[in-house]
Amino acid sequence: MVAIVWTEKADSDMEQIIDYWIAISENAARLQVKRIFDKVEILESFPKSGRVVPEFGHPQIREHIAGHYRIVYYVVSPTRVDILAIHNAAKPLDVNDFSPS
Question: Which CATH architecture has domain 3-91?
Answer without folding.
Answer: 2-Layer Sandwich (3.30)
